[in-house]
Amino acid sequence: MAVSAPLLLELGAILVVLTVLGSAARRYGLSPIPLYLLTGLFLGNGGLAPVDAAAEFVETGASIGVVLLLLTLGLEFSVGEFSESLRRHLPSAGVDLVLNAVPGALAGWLLGLEAVGIVALAGITYISSSGVIARLLGDLNRLGNRETPAVLSVLVLEDFAMAAYLPVLTVLASGGTVLEAVGWTVVALGALALAFLVSFRWGPHVGRVLGHPEDEQLLLRILGLTLIVAAIAEHVHASAAVGAFLVGLTLTGDVADRARSVLTPLRDLFAAVFFVSIGLNVAPADLLPMLPFALGLAALTAVTKVITGAYAARREGAAKPGQRRAGMALIARGEFSLVIIGLAGTGVAALSPVATPYVFILAIVGPVLTRFAR
User: N or C: which end of the chain has fewer CB within 10 A?
Assistant: First the structure.
């Protein structure tokens, strides 16, 4: 089998650069995520050193990265505790929707976008980045904090909302019928409800089936099941991230402890690739024309996310410092917002110039603000 020398060279160079940047960030107690995002911007289309040979691998690795991030996050919690937290935070989901979708819809109206563009921009400002935030909570050692279940509940409820939203947006963007949108929405929500039921009722049995004394077998079994569940969730227009998270919730006890051990190095590798891919998809020139408007919208929806997180953390019983940490953690936007831009951007030419710099600003600023939240 022929080996692509340019592919190996570019991948090697990317990993070396990430190593240097990651070490520098951690030396000063920072998350390396913003530096990884900027690396992708530097290496992407229109950047100073495009990596054409590695681009396809980075895109594929990014999909695996977000799945692994949510899988390992789910391993930190039990399904019983998390289902109780979800019920407690249904009001938080309503606050989140009103405070963060409405500014996007109003911004779309002010820009003169058509209906599809308004709906798309509302979704872009509404949905936080599960992948960025999951890694951020781990980097900052906040998985055990009092406010963390509130943050995760908001993220998962947002992803559930995406299961209803994405089919509708897809149909609107392609000129399909309302009946088609309703049908796909019902299928997506039904699939997620079934997966959650399986996790809740038969989680211990799944753990026993997947458990194995050899690390290699354990890794292959868990990763294989997770990718299949994530693929099914994605196929029905739900969230691959939520599917992976539910698999993580299903595993408990010794199996979960060993799974965290064998998955962590793999997760860290593909998570870094995921963050680079966000920047890789953005051409620097695309960030400039509507940058002032995007900055204003980013500032407004950063504040509304902080209010959302503080409200959710207060329902969890967190004190004011925890409420601030929860709010700052939710600021980052990322993968879902970029998916929405991809779905609607081709049909609404005015959407991408404002939405792309908006997402990139908050993907970088969010982790920085979260690090210094006190």
Answer: N
Tokens encoding 42: 């530097």
Q: Rounded to whole angstroms, how far apart are CA atoms 16 and 63?
A: 21
Q: Read off the pTM.
A: 0.78
Confidence of residue 43 (pLDDT cuts 50, 70, 90): confident
Strands annotated E in 109-260:
none
pLDDT tens per residue, range 114-161: 888 899 999 999 999 887 888 888 888 888 888 988 898 898 888 778
Q: What is the DSSP letter of 68?
A: H
Residue matched to tokens 């050899």: 214
Taking Cα atoms as reference points, which of 312, 356, 341, 1 lies closest to residue 169? Answer: 341
Distances (CA, A) of 8 to 5, 12, 13, 14, 22: 5, 6, 9, 10, 21
- Residue 137's pLDDT is 86
pLDDT at 47: 65
Name the amino acid, one letter, at 310. Answer: A
The three-point CA angle 194-196-200 to 5° equals 115
Of residues 69, 25, 30, the one with CA closest to residue 277: 69
3-class DSSP assignment, residue 32: coil
Rounded distance, CA 244 to CA 108, Å?
33
The tokens describing 338, both together, are 């970029």
Interval 264-276: pLDDT, tens: 889 888 888 888 8
Q: Which residues 6+ apart lie within 8 Å of 293 measured at CB?
A: 107, 111, 354
Q: Are 338 and 162 in contact (CB under 8 A)?
A: no
Answer whether residue 210 shows pLDDT above 70: yes
Length of the chain, please? 374
Which residues are CB-neighbours of 141 under 8 A, at least 6 positions away?
none
